[in-house]
Amino acid sequence: MLSRARGVEVDSKDIDIEVYGLTAAQVTAALPGHVMEVGQHFGIVSATVGGQVFDVSLPRQESETEAFARRDFTINAMGWDDRSGDVVDPFGGQRDLAAGQLRHTSTAFGDDPLRVLRAMQLSGRFGFELVPETAQLCRSLAPVFADLPKARIWGEFYKLASKGTYISKALETLHISGWEEHFPELAATRGVPQDPEWHPEGDVHTHLGLAGDQAARIARREQLDAHGTATLVLAAVTHDLGKALSTIIDAKDRISSNGHNVTGVEPARSFLHRIGAPGRYEDKILPLIREHMCHTPEGHHGTISDSAVRRLIRRLDHANGGPSLEDWARLVEADKEGRGAGARQGVNHLPTWLSKAEMLGKERMVGTTLLKGAALADADIPRGRLWQFVIEQSRDAQDDGLFSDEDGAAAWLHANRDTVVAEAVRRLDEFQARK
User: Start and end of every tRNA nucleotidyltransferase/poly(A) polymerase RNA and SrmB- binding domain (predicted)?
Assistant: First the structure.
């Protein structure tokens, strides 16, 4: 079944119908398809027709208008009078639907404060804007946020991230509703300046919204599933949270945010916890944030080495639940495209990264660790944490193409034992000094 929002037809998965003037027995008898009672206490009957589920509820004792007043927004408080053929619209829902506005029906809106986050995700999915009086009511509900279960909070953010198109509008609704204060990592980016040559769109918060819009577009182009879409959109919304910590303006008014990809990991982790995101999202998103700035090659020649690609593949750690290099490329694209018209773009190196990754992906041992414990023992290296720092060096050598199998790794260690152990001891001393 199709529904229409702001002139766009969307496939409706969740269809609820409220019926007046009939008893439960009459409703059950009138419904086609497979019918069953799913909420006897509340008078809900479920009918499945052609694979589509319809939940049909019987009203309580109040009038139709009172029942509509319990709905969250006017666009959801409309009905159909089958006898007269008229739309029942006591709160002007048709008007608000045409105007793309979210307006509460009554003070009953506050009975479920989660409706504020529902406004956010409806803004993101359909481009709706919150009217001032409803925004004011939302602000009055801000103190009860702490009482909401994390699972329900995640439900609204998941709908936004997996189904949204207008992510920047959702962030603006979160702001004007007063509920952005509950997500301080995001709120901290508002007003943080960016280099206007590279970011003419404005502050960091604006950029995150636009990057989210682009992430949603890319996800649909790539036909990602709901989980993949949500991952990419949330990565785009959080990828520059570190700029709130790392941005500086020098004596010549030049703006820079060096290292924001690193300082942004912990704020992103905190944000994901606040919205109740399952751990698998953290496993995918945090490595993307940490690595989203490494796409520009170092050095004057501007070349991307096989070693750089192998190292990135290893750091992303896709084999152990981390993101793929394709996931990384999509975030980098969303970041670049979310900078507004006129932004300085530079050279697009993503095709080279992807083509090299495809070629190197055929290497059977790429991303693995070829130096094994037996080789370390044969080299008379004391077992313990020292092994960790020897293995770190072996991974670098492996990514540089110095060997490609376990025998080669053992030979490399034998030939370079003294140098490798000395460096491992130095790293171990540094590690212990930091503890």
Answer: 127-187
